[in-house]
């Protein structure tokens, strides 16, 4: 219902409907002001609104599932980044400890 194809086909049907009723030689089944056509449009609108609402609800459910998936991915990425930062801190501390030990060893060695 929300596509250009639907709008174009419906427009052609309406033009054909009106044209046939205006120039009908024998039988006008829906004379001007096209009460039957108006009734058909009202019926279509009555069904279109709930269909559109259902489509929007389905889309919002899909969006909710996608957002939940994105959130879980972000939480996992954050946890992994925090673990990497902890590892990097550990490596940095170990290197600093080694440097301090090397400096202490250099100070303990007698100078020649």
Question: Key features?
Answer:
single chain; 112 residues; mainly alpha; 0% strand; rod-shaped
How would you describe the overall organization of this protein?
This protein has 112 residues and is mainly α. Helix content is 83%, strand content 0%. The protein has helices spanning 4-22, 35-108. The longest helix has 74 residues, at 35-108. It starts with a helix and ends with a helix.
N- to C-terminal distance: 94 Å
What is the β-strand count?
Answer: 0
String of helices and strands: HH
Helical segment count: 2
Number of domains: 2
Our estimate of the beta-strand percent is: under 5%
Shape: rod-shaped
Query: Low-confidence spans: pLDDT under 50, at least 5 residues?
Result: none
Average pLDDT figure: 89
Radius of gyration: 38 Å
Task: Tell me the layout of helices and strands.
Blueprint: H1 4-22, H2 35-108
In short:
With 112 residues, the chain is mainly alpha-helical.
């Amino acid at each position: 219902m929300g596509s250009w194809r639907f709008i174009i086909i419906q427009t052609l049907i309406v033009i054909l409907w009106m044209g046939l009723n205006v120039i009908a030689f024998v039988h006008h089944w829906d004379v001007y002001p096209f009460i039957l056509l108006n009734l058909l449009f009202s019926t279509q609108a009555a069904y279109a609104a709930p269909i559109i609402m259902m489509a929007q609800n389905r889309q919002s459910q899909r969006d909710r599932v996608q957002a939940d998936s994105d959130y879980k991915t972000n939480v996992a990425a954050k946890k992994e980044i925090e673990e990497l930062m902890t590892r990097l801190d550990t490596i940095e501390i170990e290197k600093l400890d080694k440097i301090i030990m090397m400096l202490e060893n250099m100070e303990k060695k007698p100078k020649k």
